[in-house]
Design goal:
By secondary structure, this protein is α/β, with parallel strands linked by helices. The chain folds into two domains: about 220 residues, Rossmann fold (3-Layer(aba) Sandwich), CATH 3.40.50.1400; about 150 residues, Rossmann fold (3-Layer(aba) Sandwich), CATH 3.40.50. Helices cover about 40% and strands about 10% of the residues. It contains 14 helices and eight strands. The strands form two sheets. The protein has a four-stranded parallel sheet, with helices on both faces. Strands 6-5-7-8 form a four-stranded parallel sheet, sandwiched between helices. Helix 13 links the parallel strand 7 and strand 8. Helix 5 crosses helix 14. The longest helix has 21 residues. It binds coproporphyrin III and fe (ii) ion. Fe (ii) ion binds next to loops.
Length: about 425
């Protein structure tokens, strides 16, 4: 998280897992020099993925939804083992992990993220039931209990063989897309279910109306709240909307979408955020209010370029531009988890105060009814094989791919791991 340098040297990465962690559900990444299985058939992948359509428009009789979360600790004793899982393969010593642990320790060692996913699971189940759709929701995390392995064991015990995954992550990048797909492949290998269970994944949903709607409400409401508190504020000259997302290494950003589409600075990752932010401002009736895309939660060595500007630096510059108030929009996040609570509600709001700015933080989608309904719609478009032209997308960039493109969201730092729901490799 913010300002914590967790970078490891290349030498660290060559060894498997220097922390010696006995983690479940994940395997250390192989060294970057591992042979790349170009064109290989990946067990458990959609048969169609091997040939390569961008969208799957044949109906598929999925028998369960796999809700794939990040996972988080739920007590002080979980914190370091959780952080070892997250940083597995990067050889980071426990003393350095303790720096990040500080954020979790502050909240009693518990991240709210698991409870938020329990609530999302319940909300999805209620939405499915209200539409008469008989699809169980299995929940598994990448980094904490219940792990993806547990969810697959549960699927197998119930006789489910065709899973459609929803990852709790809306945009394209290694951390928000491919890492989930690699962990699906790992979990099938770990559980020996690669020949039995197939896992497909819904498209990245950054521009799906269900994901966008809560932010539109939030921005509209945020400006109203600021003006209510200070009626002299003129939103067009005095307020700035900061759309905040997770910073990622610039090398990851450059690889976040198909290279041939030329997304410009920050790759598909930044382009998706910029496009959604524009839609949000327009739909909130705030197109004439100034806004910018900013980044948070950077880690890694200072020598490694990550996407900028940092939200705190951006806030510090606002008074000189004549701004008196700021609306902070966690556009890159689906729930109010630790990165939102600590890096925005704790740090960014404090920075705003230090610079004499009034500030509000907009909610994340969480279990907003539009978001929950949107996720069910994303599953149904795969169940029904909905034609691409009928799939909702609020930006020109989407509807994003059902089947990730070759090399999409590749990680050039941590080495190759096989991934599902994409064209190999
Ligand atoms: C793009 C992105 C998302 C959004 C998409 C998505 O939601 O998936 C996200 C979400 C999250 N990240 C989270 C936590 C952490 N992320 C870390 C590290 C990193 N994240 C990265 C990127 C992202 N992360 C990157 C590039 C790294 C460096 C590692 C590397 O080099 O690849 C570390 C290690 C310490 C550190 O490095 O700061 C922790 C503890 C939590 C859980 C919060 C909770 O517990 O409530 C959540 C939801
Ligand atoms: Fe992260």
């Amino acid at each position: 998280m913010a300002a914590v340098n967790l970078g490891s040297s290349g030498a660290d990465r060559q060894g498997a897992d220097a922390t010696g962690t006995a983690h479940r559900g994940r395997k250390p990444a192989p060294a970057a020099s591992a042979p790349c299985a170009v064109g290989a058939i990946v067990p458990g992948a959609t048969p169609a993925a091997q040939g390569g359509p961008e969208h799957v428009t044949e109906p598929v009789a999925y028998d369960a939804i796999l809700l794939a979360g990040f996972g988080g600790p739920e007590g002080q004793d979980d914190v370091i083992p959780f952080l070892r899982n997250v940083t597995s393969g990067r050889g980071i010593p426990d003393e350095r992990l303790e720096e990040v642990a500080h954020h979790y320790r502050h909240f009693g060692g518990t991240s709210p993220i698991n409870e938020q996913n329990r609530q999302l699971k319940a909300a999805l189940e209620a939405e499915l039931a209200s539409r008469g759709i008989d699809l169980p929701v299995l929940w598994g995390n990448r980094n904490w209990d219940p792990y993806l392995n547990d969810a697959l064991a549960e699927a197998n015990a119930a006789g489910h063989t065709k899973l459609i995954a929803i990852a709790t992550s809306a945009y394209s990048s290694y951390s928000s897309c491919r890492q989930y797909r690699e962990d699906f492949a790992d979990a099938l290998a770990d559980t020996d279910l690669g020949d039995v269970i197939r896992i497909d994944k819904v498209r990245q949903f950054f521009d799906h109306p269900g994901f966008v709607a809560p932010f539109v409400e939030g921005v509209r409401d945020g400006i109203v709240r600021l003006v209510a508190a200070d009626p002299a504020l003129n939103p067009v000259t005095d307020v700035e909307v900061l759309f905040a997302t997770h910073s990622i290494p610039s090398t990851d950003a450059a690889k976040s979408g198909p290279a041939e589409r030329g997304f410009g600075e920050g790759g598909a990752y930044a382009a998706q955020h910029r496009a959604v932010a524009e839609v949000v401002m327009r739909e909130a009736g705030a197109s004439d209010v100034p806004w910018q895309l900013v980044y948070q939660s950077r880690s890694g060595p200072p020598s490694m370029p990550w996407l900028e500007p940092d939200i705190n630096d951006a806030i510090a510059e606002l008074p000189a531009a004549g701004r008196k108030a700021v609306v902070i929009v966690p556009l890159g996040f689906v729930s109010d988890h630790m990165e939102v609570l600590w890096d925005l509600d704790n740090e960014a709001l404090e920075t705003a105060g230090e610079h004499g700015l009034a500030a509000v933080r907009v909610p994340t989608p969480g279990t907003h009814p539009a978001y929950v309904a949107g996720l069910v719609d994303l599953v149904l478009e795969r169940v029904n094989g909905t034609p691409v032209a009928e799939r909702p997308a609020k930006t020109e960039l989407g509807p994003w791919y059902d089947v990730c493109r070759p090399g999409c969201c590749e990680n050039v730092r941590l080495g190759f791991r096989p991934a599902l729901a994409g064209i190999a490799p």
